[in-house]
Amino acid sequence: MAAADTQYDYDLFTIGAGSGGVRASRVAAAHGARVAVAEEHRVGGTCVIRGCVPKKMLVYGAHFAEDLHDAARFGWTVGERRFDWIALRDAVLADVDRLNGLYRQTLENNKVTIFDERATITGPHEITLASGRTVTARIVLVATGARPFVPDCPGAELGITSNEAFHLDAVPERVLIAGGGYIANEFAGIFNALGAKVTIMNRGETILRGYDEALRDRLLQISLLKGIDFRFNASFRGIARSDGGALRVSMTGHDDLEADCVLFATGRLPNSGGLGLEAQGVTLGERGAIPVDRFSRTATDWIYAVGDVTDRVQLTPVAIREGQAFADTVFGDQPSSVDYDCIPSAVFSHPPLASVGMTEGEARNAYGGVKVYQSDFRPMKNVIAGRNERSLYKMVCDGTSGRILGLHMIGPDAPEILQAAAVAVKAGLTKADFDATVALHPTMAEELVLMR
């Protein structure tokens, strides 16, 4: 990089120490930049502190409910089963503390200055900290992530979001989850497995909009069989606390419902308010997103933004790649941008699903003629356990070339299997390439090369 500009206190000041901000700061410092980071909550961001990492740990804990039940069919004698939510909760929170420490250590090892307070942009190249201290930087990176959206209805303050779900003192007996996306379906699976009566309330008529229809339908069928209720085309009228302490929820199109906990999982909004961006010429977009070019630069040439706050693709690995590309471009003299094509994604529901590339509907719209291959099967473990739950793998191909346009899976370990398969889809391989690969038997993954 160019020599440090001594007219500024720092070469880079990053606001927000989540996945994208930490990666950008660490790499910029490795390129020789003088870097500072401000974080008003905890280093690690949504994913590590109150998102995908602790949630995946809860998913692991919830899976034992079925595993312990099925163990008898595999010859194991299991004593009295008893679940301790506090033990799981505290173990998860302890690991979050560990990860928070590792993220701080990573920054400190790279000589990044950490300010544990809120920061706002108060002038050209000027940042003011909550303590009143003012510093300057040649480049400012906004990586403040997103926050849960809470519907505007009477009594909304009685509900919680995914942020608070990790700190509950007990598993609620009755949980109403508002939303139909991945957060709603993941927490529905967790709480249902841990013994709660779960109802999903969705203002639309489908779950997991954007995923392939076959996977959405299969998860809905399995969720209903597991005892999860669904209320579609329902919007909040209001939430009130009854004399007995329960929450009475009034909604459109359905009867009132009583719950002990209402969890809002209704999407996430870019966390861009109150940062002083508008005064510096950055006009916020729809939902508060910070508009950027392919190099993550805003309309103001010294302000950049990465991660969920840009509302491009709200996924942790994408934020990390954006942070890496930003640092390489601005401080490493290696112009880089992120390729958003064929990004794999997963929903850690019960069972999980995973997807990469186009859905069948998207492929037909784009290519016209497509060929679809499926494998609808009962995993061997479910057969022995006496469970009728079936997995579904679906491959969508260009009807002319055979190139794989999309791969969609629902079943045990689907995200673990898809990660490797996503490489093949990204590389443009064909159905014939999969057919030419010998199956690894007996596995669920072998269905990928056996589909007809």
Question: Can you put this structure into words, describing what you see?
Answer:
The protein is an alpha/beta fold. Strands 1, 2, 3, 4, 5, 6 and 17 form a seven-stranded mixed beta sheet that branches. Strands 8-15-9-10-11 form a five-stranded parallel beta sheet. Strands 18-19-22-21-20 form a five-stranded antiparallel beta sheet, sandwiched between helices. It has helices at about 20-30, 45-50, 50-70, 85-110, 160-165, 180-195, 215-225, 315-330, 360-365, 380-385, 415-425, 430-435; strands at about 10-15, 35-40, 115, 120-125, 125-130, 135-140, 145-150, 160, 175-180, 195-200, 230, 235-240, 245-250, 255-260, 260-265, 270, 305, 345, 355, 370-375, 390-400, 405-410. The protein has three domains: about 10-145 and about 270-330, FAD/NAD(P)-binding domain; about 155-265, FAD/NAD(P)-binding domain (3-Layer(bba) Sandwich); about 350-450, FAD/NAD-linked reductase, C-terminal dimerisation domain (Enolase-like, domain 1, 2-Layer Sandwich), CATH 3.30.390. About 30% of the residues lie in helices and about 25% in strands.
